[in-house]
Amino acid sequence: MSTSLRITAASVEPELFDLPWHIPLKAWPKETIAALPRGISRHIVRFVHLDGRVIAIKEIGEKVAHREYDMLRNLGRIGAPAVAPLAVVTGRIREDGKPLEAALITEHLAYSLPYRALFGQWLKPETANRLIDALSILLVRLHLLGFYWGDVSLSNTLFRRDAGEFAAYLVDAETGELHENLSPGKRAYDIDVARTNIIGELMDLQSGEMLDEDADVVGLGNRLQERYNTLWGELTRVDSFASTERWRVDDRINRLNSLGFDVGELAMSSDSSGSSVSIQPKVVDAGHYNRQIMRLTGMNVEENQARRLLNDIKSYRALGGRGDQDLTVVARDWLVNIFQPAVNAVPVNLRGRLQPAELYHELLEHRWYMSEAAGHDVSMAYSTRSYIESILVHRPDERALLGQVTE
Ligand SMILES: Nc1ncnc2c1ncn2[C@@H]1O[C@H](COP(=O)(O)OP(=O)(O)OP(=O)(O)O)[C@@H](O)[C@H]1O
Ligand SMILES: [Mg+2]
Fold this sequence. Notes:
The chain is of the alpha+beta class. The protein has helices at residues 62-77, 125-144, 184-207, 217-236, 247-258, 288-297, 303-319, 327-344, 356-374, 380-390, and strands spanning 6-9, 45-50, 53-60, 85-90, 102-107, 147-148, 157-162, 165-170, 177-178, 239-242, 261-270, 276-286. The strands form four sheets. The protein has a five-stranded antiparallel β-sheet with strand order 1-4-5-3-2, with helices on one face. A three-stranded antiparallel β-sheet has the order 10-12-11, covered by helices on one side. Strand 7 and strand 8 form a beta hairpin. Bound molecules: adenosine-5'-triphosphate (ATP) and magnesium ion.
């Protein structure tokens, strides 16, 4: 009957035709729906099992669906942290012949959480700070790529755990625009919208008694602005120094690396007498540590996780007296002898609770606390058993938070 159904996708996904497109999304049968936490939205959004993975479906006007799909594809192409688009479905018709709205399909971002699911009953001010910091990094990264968001908010962002911090991803690109170069005015507007939305969202939490009524929500909104400005300044500022102080070039690059950015292109100029030099990063790419871990281990992890793993590989090298060996060789041994055994020690039924790199980060933390308490190093095998029994089994299953998501 649904001969009019059209699916626009970059890759062939025949299973998509098996979904009940003739039914409004909110009435889809329970068996197809994946119960995962979801943020607040105007449109109907559902997660659906499809051939061993989970997809997110949003019912939305046809034009907007295509626009958002194209925008997300472009963002993916330039390496922006955003959800990945899969398809647009149009020409949906109900059994009684009435038309239904189009649908935008994206891949569910594994292990991601909407901000409202990040706290069971209560948002700790400390957690709020971390969310804001992650969002400010995301905004800087998007702006560097020339993306104007137009609707920055906690609701339009997804968060992944990142070695005790958070990494933020864009989930809603409906209002976005890609520019060759983003004007300061557009950037300022995005920051302003972010600030206003964050304050509103946090006040909402306060009135719902999920955030302490004394928490400084305006301060948190301002924090985004401050964090953004500091990072933007670090990444784009012009440095001038005497031409005898060339080491300051390395210094600047090292500082950018430690913030997780690589310098793709650097503009240098000197004055007519040649006594002073100016430098300014022209192209900076996020993912300094991510790329190193990718090259060494093949794992694609978040930036802070990558930094953590890199340090662990280096201390494994030092402790093994292998300081003269190439990190590539050492990393392979570390993966087989250290990382994999630790992660595999976790019972299968608990493995889905955390991403392997985040799990490993927690294992390292736990071993550190145990060693400190014992006054000597405890073995990884021993502390891993303790972590599983005393922490992981009691960890709230983040998937179970679904019941608290309001729509
Ligand atoms: N690919 C995805 N992976 C994980 N979660 C997703 C994904 N797509 C959507 N979501 C969830 O659905 C929620 C709503 O999505 P989205 O913000 O795109 O809807 P919207 O109706 O356009 O929102 P708005 O009200 O801001 O216009 C998100 O906050 C997020 O929690
Ligand atoms: Mg939204």
